[in-house]
Design a protein that fits this description.
The protein is an alpha+beta fold. The protein contains two helices and four strands.
C-alpha cells in the first residue's frame, strides 16, 4: 500500500460525506416547497456513492491487484416516492378538492441521515488524525 493511501481514502470519505450533508441540507430546506421551476413540488434528492478501485501490478510478484482508492460520489438522484397529499383548501397550490401535494421529504429521516453522515465524517477525521500521528511518531524515531 502506498504511504499516503490511507489519508487519500479518508479524504475521499470526507468529500463524499460533505456532499451527502449538502444534499440532506437541501432536502430539509425545501421540505415545504410546493412549487419548483417545473411546477411540481420539490422532490427529495439522495447522494449515491460507489467504491473507487484501481488496478495495479505488484512489482514483486508481477500479479495484478485491485486496490481501493476510497469512495466516490457517482451522482445525486431524485427519490421517486410519491408526494404527500395534505388537505389545505386555502393554500395557493391546492387542487379543486382542496388538496396540496407536498414534497416527499420526511424531516425525521433526514435528521437521522444527517447524524449518520456526521458520524461517518468524524470517523474519517479520526482515521486521518491517527495516520498523521503515526507518521509524526515515525519521524521522531529518527531523531
Amino acid at each position: 500500500m502506498n504511504t499516503f493511501q490511507s489519508m487519500r481514502i479518508s479524504a475521499s470519505g470526507l468529500s463524499a460525506e460533505r456532499l451527502r450533508m449538502d444534499t440532506i441540507s437541501s432536502n430539509i430546506a425545501n421540505a415545504t416547497t410546493t412549487r419548483t421551476e417545473n411546477g411540481d413540488p420539490y422532490r427529495r434528492k439522495v447522494a449515491i456513492f460507489e467504491e473507487s478501485l484501481k488496478r495495479e501490478v505488484n512489482k514483486v510478484s508481477g500479479e495484478s491487484e485491485i486496490i481501493s482508492q476510497g469512495v466516490k460520489a457517482s451522482g445525486v438522484v431524485e427519490d421517486k416516492s410519491p408526494f404527500k397529499r395534505v388537505y389545505n383548501p386555502k393554500h395557493p397550490d391546492a387542487d379543486e378538492n382542496g388538496y396540496v401535494e407536498m414534497p416527499n421529504v420526511n424531516i425525521l429521516n433526514e435528521m437521522v441521515d444527517m447524524m449518520a453522515a456526521t458520524r461517518a465524517y468524524e470517523a474519517n477525521v479520526t482515521a486521518m488524525n491517527a495516520t498523521k500521528n503515526m507518521y509524526m511518531k515515525a519521524l521522531q524515531i529518527g531523531r
